[in-house]
Write a structure and sequence with these properties.
Elements: E1 8-12, H1 18-36, E2 44-45, H2 47-50, H3 57-67, E3 71-75, H4 83-97, E4 111-115, H5 124-127, H6 141-147, H7 149-169, H8 176-181, H9 208-220, H10 222-225, H11 229-240, H12 250-263, H13 268-280, H14 288-302
Parallel strand pairs: 1-2, 1-3, 3-4
Helix pairs in contact: 1-7, 1-9, 3-4, 6-7, 9-12, 9-14, 11-13, 13-14
Length: 304
């Protein structure tokens, strides 16, 4: 496990929109890295990103909840019923309580709930904190994500600034034994207080959503965003031969490049794409860790 606390941890109840949660996380992670600087190794944690084969789910998630500098809670109709979300919330609330801030001091903005989707009366513990902000507008975050455009990007940038502020505060961690002993702050008693399993991908078949996330992440890398997709293709071709990548515009060409990489018999094209980006974007571009993580996930599925 990482020795560096993550700047933020995303808590959410898994349901049908989990792919949109992952895409929102990708966007937020890049914005936070831009603010924290290129030397910061660990920015955001999402269970779909930071769990590896053989990991103890409960141990990893409790470790992140007890050490991350802030928690983003994505409120939904299912969130308040989840005892596991209640446990993550309880750990963070306990850490904030132990700050022992003097009377009248500003409340530490380290536990940040946002209206993600659905409609449900929030548990008392959640209702104590505001989950809306005039700077984000009145829309649900999931609707902003689906619509995209300036309002969504503005919301992501604002949340990233709040996360950067919490990271500077460096909320002290909770001891491992103490964190495991914290009871859920809310949740349906009939549901287990343990993390639900992530959906397993079919061996060899990369989900379309994961391909799209890789294309989006590639597009966030500075030189690619500036239109230098041709140079990346040339660097890949140096390794695998002429590809004849078509498409109108950089995003369409990225789609073609990813499709060709996944049709390759081994990981050579994926590896050369990442190596080429590191040549094009020296100094550890803040979008590169997201690209590297998505390529790792794809390789685990496509080439098990």
């Amino acid at each position: 496990m990482s020795e560096t606390p993550y700047a933020f941890f995303v808590s959410y109840a898994r349901h049908v929109d989990q792919d949109l949660v992952a895409e929102f996380f990708d966007d937020l992670d890049v914005e936070v890295r831009l603010l924290l600087g290129r030397d910061r190794k660990d920015a955001g944690f999402l269970d779909r990103e930071g769990l590896y084969p053989g990991d103890d789910w409960e141990q990893v998630l409790i470790e992140r909840a007890r050490t991350a500098h802030s928690m983003i809670a994505l409120l939904s109709a299912d969130y308040g019923r989840s005892r596991w979300c209640g446990r993550e919330w309880g750990i963070f609330a306990e850490r904030i309580e132990r700050l022992n801030a003097p009377p009248g001091a500003p409340h530490a903005r380290c536990l940040m709930p946002f209206r993600w989707s659905g409609a449900a009366t929030p548990p008392a513990a959640v209702a104590k904190l505001h989950s809306t902000h005039r700077g984000l507008g009145g829309d649900l975050l999931i609707d902003l994500k689906r619509a995209g455009g300036p309002p969504y990007l503005k919301a992501v940038a604002k949340i990233a600034r709040w996360i950067a502020g919490a990271d500077a505060l460096a909320l002290p961690p909770l001891g491992r034994a103490e964190a495991r002993a914290v009871p859920p702050a809310f949740g349906d008693p009939s549901t287990p207080a343990s993390p639900p399993p992530l959906p397993a991908a079919a061996p060899g078949r990369v989900p379309m959503q994961l391909k799209e996330r890789l294309v989006n992440a590639l597009y966030m890398v500075g030189p690619i965003r500036s239109g230098e997709i041709g140079e990346l293709i040339r660097l890949v071709e140096d390794e695998v031969g002429i590809l004849d990548i078509g498409g109108n515009g950089p995003r369409a060409r990225l789609v073609s490049l990813v499709q060709r990489a996944l049709a390759h018999e081994d990981t050579t094209m994926l590896d050369s794409m990442l190596a080429g980006l590191r040549v094009q974007a020296p100094g550890n571009d803040p979008a590169l860790p997201r690209v590297a993580e998505l390529i790792r996930q794809i390789k685990d599925i496509r080439y098990p």
